[in-house]
Amino acid sequence: MPDTDLSILDELYGIIMDRKENPVENSYVCSLLNHRKGIDKILEKVGEESIETILAVKSGKREEIIYESSDLLFHLMVMFVAEGITLEEITTELQKRRK
């Protein structure tokens, strides 16, 4: 398995966190974090992207799987920020499961 620069996840998380702390007009992330429905809107997007990822896998089209999985991961990260969950907490849990 080739080495991959996972710092993009940290960078993306930081951007999402910054949008939460410093809202920007017309920002998609801000629209999710500040939506009148609150966390429900974010969960709706996580559900939608989950289904789209499943359908992409069923289609067997690698490019679609990557595209939809990226959307799902992005929306999960928005959910983490909204709920005050850090990437470190997620990686710690994953490390526990590996042992």
TrEMBL record:
Pathway: Amino-acid biosynthesis; L-histidine biosynthesis; L-histidine from 5-phospho-alpha-D-ribose 1-diphosphate: step 2/9. Keywords: Amino-acid biosynthesis, ATP-binding, Cytoplasm, Histidine biosynthesis, Hydrolase, Nucleotide-binding. GO terms for molecular function: ATP binding; phosphoribosyl-ATP diphosphatase activity. It is found in: Cytoplasm. Signal peptide: none annotated. One of its GO terms (cellular component) is cytoplasm. Its EC number is 3.6.1.31. SUPFAM superfamilies: all-alpha NTP pyrophosphatases. It catalyses: 1-(5-phospho-beta-D-ribosyl)-ATP + H2O = 1-(5-phospho-beta-D-ribosyl)-5'-AMP + diphosphate + H(+). CDD domains: NTP-PPase_HisIE_like (cd11534). The keyword Glycoprotein does not apply. Its main location: cytoplasm. It comes from the Archaea. GO terms for biological process: L-histidine biosynthetic process. Belongs to the PRA-PH family. This is Phosphoribosyl-ATP pyrophosphatase. The gene is hisE.
